[in-house]
Every structure is written in structure tokens, then in C-alpha cells.
Amino acid sequence: MTHTLATLDTPAAIVSLPRVQHNIARMQARADALGVRLRPHVKTTKCAQVVAAQRAAGAQGITVSTLKEAEQFFAQGITDILYAVAMAQHRLPQALALRQRGCALQILTDSMEGARAIAEFGRAQGHAFDVLVEIDTDGHRSGIAPDDALLLEVAGTLHGAGMRLLGVLTHAGSSYALDDPVALAALAEQERAGCVRAAERLRAAGLPCPVVSVGSTPTALEAAALPSVTELRAGVYVFFDLVMRNVGVCRDDELALSVLTTVIGHQADKGWAIVDAGWMAMSRDRGTARQSRDYGYGQVCTVDGAPIAGYLLSGANQEHGIVSHAEGSDPAIATRFPVGTRLRIWPNHACATGAQFPAYQALAQDGSITTWERFHGW
Questions:
Q1: What is the mean pLDDT of residues 222-244?
Q2: What number of other Cβ atoms are within 10 A of residue 270's Cβ?
Q3: pLDDT tens track for 132-160
Q4: H helix or E strand, kind and range, residue 313
Q5: 121-158 in b/e burial notation, b at 16+ Cβ within 10 A?
Q6: Which helix (H) or strand (E) holds 342?
Q7: CATH 3.20.20.10 region(s) of the chain?
Q8: What is each CA distance from 184 to 144, 216, 338, in whole angstroms?
Q9: Taking 80 as the threshold, does the pLDDT of residue 14 lie above it?
Q10: Domain with CATH 2.40.37.20 in the chain
Q11: How far apart are alpha carbons 175 and 214 in whole angstroms?
């Protein structure tokens, strides 16, 4: 059966194909202008069709957040894969199996414990893993500071054990908390300079460092230049979301993911319309609550995707969402949004909302819809 927005079951994850294509082209053009290869992070979409479009546009290799993603994309014929999470010892056999099947899997560590585990397992198996060391350039999450003595210890342990030390990687995740282009550009330079500094220290110590990998969607789009960087990673740019809208790196007409939902009831005295998209559809992510504009659980739009000023998904239970006006109760809400009305909701965090669905409904310019499966699991 061929579906339209009027006949799809709800809730459903809707992906605008023209916007996805525009967003992919925009980031690829950015990487090309900066003179670096783009290795997109596919954890946002986990979708073969999206990744095929990124590769067709010029992306080189992919970044994943789980080994299950690596396995699934390797099965799709992609071999150049970076697993950008510190390698846990119990996952080393799975990583080895992928490499032995022909996947050029790169792995990551930021500790002596991790380096020793990789080195000992690699030696025991007679296998040289390709390894990068994670660098902390903004105090956001994980990694080794560029000037920390630990960097040379970790890298030396890997190299000395016969592992292939590929280089350094960083992610300026604190960019998500900014909303000023000047501040984003400054953080992009901090991210670049810190990672390059780490690479220079490795080389000065006689250690190999061919790869200098940086990136987040905001810093990728605001970086003035990336001298001495070899690759750029970014992921959420394919769909964008309300967090990125608040950061200031996308416009409304670049938000490519929305959730199609149906009005199923009202609490007119409270100014509520009840929809069938609760947190099981939208996720519990309230990332915009920490930003300059709080969108609740999402921005309410018409079925055609136009934002309806002032109306948010203000509350969410498991399968029920609450639509209300941000500035006060709307006594006419039952008339405004009668039972059966179809709406679309832009999410706070595209990665989290996408993860709630087994598939996307890819909406073409002509209104036709194609189902795109989405990968799951670890």
C-alpha cells in the first residue's frame, strides 16, 4: 500500500528528502571548502539510504557509536569505519571478528587501562589493531588533555606493542551549549588547536600520527579554517533539530525530521489537545530546556510541516502528548485542533527521537512516501 501523510499510521518519523539532500550537500561543501575529508557520524540516522547519499556526495568513511552499527554498515559494503567510543575490553573479540572479515575498523582509547587491554589482546591474537587516542579539548566528556603526559604513555604503549597508532581524535561537545557564531568559531579553533597540539607532541616523540580528526556539527559549520586537520566528523546535520536551531547553525527550513501525530482528545479547560505521540515517540530528551528557548518536547507544526507559532508539545506521558500554547491556556484549542487533526512535531534531539522508531517515512517533494529501515542495537 502506498501511503501519504493522511494515511500513515501515527506516530511516525517523517524525513523530508529535499531537506536531507540539502543538508548533506551543505556539510559536504563545508568540508570541501575547509580542505578536509568528511567522515560523517551515522549514529543520528543509522540508515543505509542516508549513508549512501552522504557517500555519493563525497563523504569518505563513516563514524559509528556502536559495534552493531559497524556490523550492519559493513554488511552494506562499507569497510572504512571508525568506532568513536572508548573500546571496552569485552568488545575486543567483536572488533577483531569484524577486522578479520575485511572491515578496516578503527578503534579508540583514552586510558592506560584501555591501551593495555588492546595491546595485550592484540598480541595474544597476533593482530595489530588500528587505534586512535581521544583528546579532550573542551572538558566536555572524555579524552586526554593535549599536554597531559598520559598522552605519550598511552600512545607509546600501543605503538610499542605493535598496534597501528593512527592518530588523535576530539569532539567539542560543549558547542551544543553555545548560540553565538563568534563563540562557536572560537571553540572550533580551540578544538582544532588542541587536537593538532596533541598530534605534534606524538610526532615529536617519534610516534606516528597520520590522522587528526575533529568535529561536531556546530564547530564544523562555524570553523574558519582547519590547518593540520585531516578529517571532519559531524552527524546530526543530516536532520538537524531544535537544539541545533537554538545553537544557531540551522534554519527552520533545514529541520528534516518530524514526528507525525494525531489529535485523539482534549482537556479544553486546561487548554490541552491530546495527541498520540508521547515520550515513546519523541523521547524524554529536553535538551532545549537548558537553552535560550525551551520547546518543551517539541515544536508543533501543521501536517504540511509549517510551525504553528506558540504551540508546543508541553508534556509527554508514555503514549500521550500534550499540545498547548506556551503563553497560556487556549480556550478554543478543541476548535483549533479537532480530534483527528494530523500534526507534525519537530524534536529537540534528532538522535534520540529517531531511536524511538524502527523506520523512517521518507517524504519526497511530490508527497510520495518510502519506508527506510533504521538499524538498532549494540
A1: 98
A2: 12
A3: 999 999 999 999 999 999 999 999 999 99
A4: strand 307-316
A5: bbeeeeebbbbbbbbbbbebeebbebeeeebbebbbbb
A6: strand 342-346
A7: 35-238
A8: 22, 11, 43
A9: yes
A10: 252-373
A11: 13
Topology of the domain covering 252-373:
Lyase, Ornithine Decarboxylase; Chain A, domain 1 (2.40.37)
The SS3 assignment for 206 reads: coil
Give me the half-sphere count of Cα atoms (radius 13 Å) on the Cβ side of residue 363: 21
| Domain 35-238 = CATH 3.20.20.10 | yes
The tens digit of pLDDT for each residue in 65-112 reads: 999 999 999 999 999 999 999 999 999 999 999 999 999 999 999 999
Secondary structure of residue 96 in the 3-state scheme: helix
- What cell does 65 get? 557509536
Q: Give which of 344, 297, 349 is closest to 321, Cα–Cα.
A: 297
Q: What's the mean pLDDT in 236-257?
A: 98
Q: Kindly tell me the burial class for residue 192, based on how many C-beta atoms sit within 10 Å of its own C-beta (0-12, 13-18, 19 or more).
A: buried
Helix (H) or strand (E) holding 67: helix 67-75
User: What are the backbone dihedrals phi and psi of residue 281, each rounded to the nearest 5 degrees, phi first?
Assistant: -95, -45
Residue recorded with cell 517515512: 361
Amino acid at 341: T
CA distances (Å), origin 67, targets 83, 99, 182, 274, 279 = 7, 12, 36, 39, 27
CA 171 – CA 168 distance, rounded (Å):
11
Cα(252)–Cα(259) distance, integer angstroms: 15
Q: What local confidence, expressed as pLDDT, does residue 346 receive?
A: 98
Q: Whose CA is closest to 206, among 134, 170, 146, 155?
A: 155
Report the pLDDT value the prediction gives residue 49, as an integer from 0 to 100: 98
Cell of 278: 508521547
Q: For the segment 19-65, what is each residue's pLDDT rounded down to a tens digit? A: 999 999 999 999 999 999 999 999 999 999 999 999 999 999 999 99
Long-range contact list for 150-156, CB < 8 A, 24+ apart?
150/112, 151/198, 151/201, 151/202, 152/201, 152/202, 152/205, 152/207, 153/112, 153/115, 154/109, 154/110, 154/111, 154/112, 154/114, 154/115, 155/115, 155/202, 155/205, 155/207, 156/205, 156/207
Q: The pTM is what?
A: 0.97
